[in-house]
Amino acid sequence: MCHVIVTCRSMLWTLLSIVVAFAELIAFMSADWLIGKAKPSSSEEVDNRTGGSQEPYHPTLGIYWRCTRISHMQFSRRDTLCGPYAENFNEIASGFWQATAIFLAMGIMILCTVAFVSVFTMCVQSIMKKSIFNVCGLLQGIAGLFLILGLILYPAGWGCQKAISYCGPYASAYKLGDCSLGWAFYTAIGGTVLTFICAVFSAQAEIATSSDKVQEEIEEGKNLICLL
């Protein structure tokens, strides 16, 4: 018989697992990993609404995505174009970024799987006599290690030609040059920290769903068990 068991700790772990997976996925797909040096508008570019020069803009560069201004759209309100600069994996700008993409993708796949499974932990708390919370916590720890490897390797690719075109000639491995880090990089770091927090907190979720109070309510014949 299926018992639906909901506790504060198990529900918090589930929500955190979902949030972490989405945060890492959004960061990975974003172009805002590097914010390039300002590109001043030329004297010929005049805003047709104000009659003044357009503000300088900052192109952004991700692991395989980029946003930049398109010259034939310079008078449009939407004067930037975002899309992948690499049509296939081999065209990613740096070997380090290729490794970063692999490690991040592996970590995100694991996190998304755990997030999906976490929704069903209200009904299923064990599989093959193993606590599903402990298994998911172990997988989240492994995913966190993949994410750390990806984030460590990513700055090593700042010396590639693509990054130099955005960050200037002084950009090199682990040196930003004229660029700055965008929100996607910080989101990936924050998501990695939360991944390990989720891995640790999964043990608390397992304790909460197997407590004496839960067992007492199961023995009383209750199918829906909600505990603080």
From TrEMBL:
Stretches that traverse the bilayer: 12-35, 96-120, 132-154, 183-203
Gene coding for it: Lhfpl2
Gene Ontology biological process terms in this record: single fertilization
Entry annotated with the keyword Transmembrane helix: yes
Family named by the database record: Belongs to the LHFP family.
Membrane topology: Multi-pass membrane protein
Name used for this protein in its record: LHPL2 protein
Top-level lineage group: Eukaryota
Taxon lineage: Eukaryota, Metazoa, Chordata, Craniata, Vertebrata
Pfam families cross-referenced by the UniProt entry: L_HMGIC_fpl
Keyword flag Coiled coil: no
Intracellular or extracellular location(s): Membrane
Alphabetic keyword roster: Fertilization, Membrane, Transmembrane, Transmembrane helix
GO annotation, cellular component aspect: membrane
